[in-house]
Amino acid sequence: MEKERLLVKRAKRGDTEAFASLYSEVFQDMYRFAFYTLGNREDSKDAVSEAVLSAFSSIKNLRKEEAFRSWIFRILFVKCKERRREYANQTLELDEAALNTAFLEGPEEHTLVRKAFFELDQEERLLIGMHLFCGYKSREIAELLHMNENTVRSKESRALKKMGQMLNGEEG
Q1: In this predicted structure, what is the pLDDT of residue 136?
Q2: What letter does residue 61 receive in the DSSP assignment?
Q3: How would you label 48-61 residue by residue, b for 16+ Cβ within 10 Å and e otherwise?
Q4: Which of 34, 121, 129, 160 has the most CB atoms lying inside 10 A of its own CB?
């Protein structure tokens, strides 16, 4: 916590390396938040980028150094809210590439996919979440979880198949 406060003080004085260090600590959480809020990879990346640019240009206005994390997430929340407003009249669908499933057409399907995801066991949710929602590649997941890369791929494939069966009402 003290390290973060010192980095914030330096960033407030214009130290771009200090700001980059702060950003590297929160990027993944910011992206995850944006993705769960917006349901689309590209919009999530854009919202995070916009939030970071806003934060960088206004960090001098941050009053309490220890409030950096909540402050940058508030900025991100506003950026996500603006994006949601932009497509308020559109049906929010989960990113097809992110879920690697059949075409989803509306909110009922979105709910079914989420339900199927949460019916997977903990390891399956972890593998799929790390890959699809956080963007880790099989090799990275294998390293982080101390597993074989092929094992990660096969478990992820079985979990996606299981989700597909749940969505199609088949018995697994």
Answers
A1: 66
A2: G
A3: bebbbeebeeebee
A4: 34
Who has greater pLDDT, 125 or 30? 30
What CATH number has the domain bearing residue 120? 1.10.10.10
Regarding whether 161 and 116 lie in a shared domain, the answer is: yes
Give yes or no for a contact between 29 and 76, defined as CB atoms under 8 angstroms apart: no
**Residue length of the chain:** 172
**Which domain-ending residue is among 28, 62, 86?**
86
Residue 103 scores a pLDDT above 50: no
Confidence of residue 76 (pLDDT cuts 50, 70, 90): confident
- What would the two tokens of residue 154 be? 């096969």
Question: In terms of domains, do 105 and 150 share one?
Answer: yes
For residue 37, the enclosing domain spans 2-86
We report the CATH number of the domain holding residue 39 as 1.10.1740.10
